[in-house]
Amino acid sequence: MRRSALHVDFRAKLAVFALMFVLSALLTHDGSVCLAMLFMMLYLCAQSFYRAGIIYFFAGCAIALLRSLSGSEGITIFLPDVLLFAILRISLVMMAAFAMVRMPPGEITAAFMKMRLPSALALPITFMLRFAPTVRGEFRTVLAALRMRGLLSLAHPLRAFEYTLIPMITRSSVISDDLAASAELRGISNPGTHSSLRLIRFRLIDGILLILAFVFSAICLYVDKWVMI
Amino acid sequence: MVSSKIHQESSHLSVRNYATIGIFSVLMIILAIAVAIPAMSVVYFSMFISSPLIAFLSAPLFTFMVLKVHKRGTVLVYCLIMAILYLISGTPYLAAWFVLSAILGELAMTGHDAYKNFIRITISWIICSLFRATNGMIDIWFFSKQYLASGVSKAHFNQVAHYYYSVPWVIFILLLTAIGALLGGLVSAKLMKKHFVKSGLLR
User: Fold this and answer.
1) Rounded Cα–Cα distance for residues B159 and B161 (Å)
2) Residue B38 placed within a domain
3) Does a structural domain hold residue B59?
4) B4: distance to nearest CA of chain A, Å?
5) Does the first or last residue of chain B, that is N or C, have fewer Cβ atoms within 10 Å of its Cβ?
6) Is B133 strand, coil or helix?
7) Smallest Cβ distance to A72: which of B19, B20, B153?
8) Region B6-10: what's the mean pLDDT?
9) Domain range for B149
10) pLDDT tens-place string over residues B57-108
11) What angle do CA A205, A211, A215 make, to 5 degrees?
12) Residue that wins the pLDDT comparison between B25 and B5
């Protein structure tokens, strides 16, 4: 992240994420979903995630356009209406999730501790957020190795499944041990009071961001219910 | 006394165990999304095949997670993570549903050495898969107005409602899911023995 990027507290990001989830379920028109995505694009750009914000927004607009062009029929059986409907709404939630998964794990752990979430739930969620962005790369490596050896074949789906899954499980198991060892070294199991080098503070800017998120959500809901009929 | 204390401590979930649960939960979620989203292309596929296929494909991940951790509370924590995700996603009713799944899934693992027993692990996985398979049905049964108002097409709603309001079809879907989870459990047992038990990675 660049120096000029806006630093948002994890709790504020979590609230925005929950808000977008609720909004994706409440908005009935694609236009209003795109409006919410516009807000999320600005939210991501403010945190220097320009590429992700712009790609998600324009992809969302393209899906909304496809859906409006096809009516309620969808585009052939490969892109039916319900799939376009789901992808559009999932994209909105993914935009909110993107800012969360890109946070340093130490900051997430410290934020969870401040939230007094039981460690039985806080720890696995922290590891989930740390691991999620790397899954694609891990899968790509495994698949590339299998393809190079000519082991990926649709003629033997069960064998291909085994050859893909076993390295993935082994790799994930090693990663989980490494991440746990790294967390242990930093004293995560210490029963005493934990401190963090990062300042975990809900600042004025986080409050303003949350107010803005609620205002934009209210605007999206108003547009959805009263303008787009 | 020292050895009994060490034994007592090791029966609790450690940071390493939480890391395993978290990472394998991510893999199961990603696999479920990777199957469920393309499955939406064909409504019948998404209703009848998606849940059994997810139950089958995710079974090795679940089995490995349980066998690697082999401590009481693994299934409970895994299902509670799912419940939290549903809670954040604005569907508290599904979160409550998953808490029930967590309790039943963990109950299936009670008893000595159940966390090393492939049959018990498969039973627990069948319970978790059945609860997951009913997610879509709950939306239609109890929140049909909201589901329809969400902007989904009427034609799609009618197709789905036709099957989800029919008891024989619901039983058929759940039966398929249970078979998928059972087959997944059987295949997992073979894979674990072949690749991980023999190599000593799992006990």
Assistant:
1) 6
2) no
3) yes
4) 20
5) N
6) helix
7) B153
8) 51
9) 15-30+49-197
10) 999 999 999 999 999 999 999 999 999 888 877 678 888 999 999 999 999 9
11) 140
12) B25
